[in-house]
Amino acid sequence: MYNNEIIKFIKNKFSEKTQIPLHEPKFFGNEKKYVLDTINSTFVSSIGSYVDRLEEMTSNYINSSRAIATVNGTSALQVALRSIGVKYGDEVITQGLTFIATANSIIYNGASPVFLDVDKDTMGLSPNAVKIFLEEFGELRGDGCYNKKTNRKISACMPMHTFGFPVHLKELLKVCNEWGIPILEDAAEALGSLYNSKKVGNFGLMGVFSFNGNKIITTGGGGLIVTNDNNLADKCKHLTTTAKTLHPYEFIHDEIGYNFRMPNINAALGCGQMENLNILLENKRKLAHEYSEYFESIGINFRKELPDTKANYWLMCLQFEDKKERDLFLKETNEENIMTRPIWQLIFKNTPYKDFQTDCQKNAIFLQDRIVNIPSNI
Ligand SMILES: *Cc1c(COP(=O)(O)O)cnc(C)c1O
What we know:
The protein is α+β, with helices and mostly antiparallel strands. 37% of the residues lie in helices and 16% in strands. Strand 2 (91-95), helix 5 and strand 3 (112-116) form a beta-alpha-beta unit.
């Protein structure tokens, strides 16, 4: 093992810091100016033009017809699922290896997650695992695909682009189309990632991004739903703004909505951040390139983007030979104030999720034992 050498390399690379973080937000553009503008105008909350501006900037960037800004990525997932028609008693296919919010958003709708395996090369939902699962348990009925084992409707499939590495979207779309299951991409980590030269988040029926402080750009806290379906977009906007009907002064609500609209002050920060996104992506790519050369030279697996994709390299990662090597690396780097973190514990190993249907999870377990995030700050 080369832990001492790696520690030296990382310390040298980030020499100005005593505690080397995984990722920090960067503000070097118009962020202050726009945020101050909302304060000076008093429009810091639910009224103001920055939300519209952020929605326009992001939909232009993603090339989706619409974008809806929300208070965080989790609420964006929750509302997107509901707008697709995920309801109490339904099931949603997702991956066992993901951040907890993916699964929580399913439960918030009264539905159950089905945890399927990931691919080793993408670390995201495996189209083949979905195919195998549906061949065994899927049944097409009049109104969609059902799980024969549970007799519940499978009303969505939610892949997640782990650390900004796109899943095999073409193959996944093919399987899901065959079974009539709409895709909601959890692209929370993948703003700026490309699949076949197109931005991820815009391949499924809907996509969701997060603007939390630890993501590639931030609004403090925030999320975004994107879609090319105007009806779904209207529905999401309606649901995130308390389902209030249009009226000059009366309060009339036609269903039970949420107060999930992004405040104007957060959107102002987001507009400033969006202007910097390309620079941030370039800098991430530069760091990934340096890491890649270095780790290649010492024979350690630095995870790189696959052909026909571009990762945003939000969080970069190493893959170790086994759990023992991984654990030693985590211990020795953290002792040296270099922040490194293992990939998530598989969702269904968390107590609230232990009773849901899963498959073999062979690749997820393999990756869980080996993947570590390393400082990706730029
Ligand atoms: C960050 C994240 C979310 C949720 O975003 P928040 O804005 O923190 O609510 C959802 N899914 C994944 C995979 C994430 O990484």
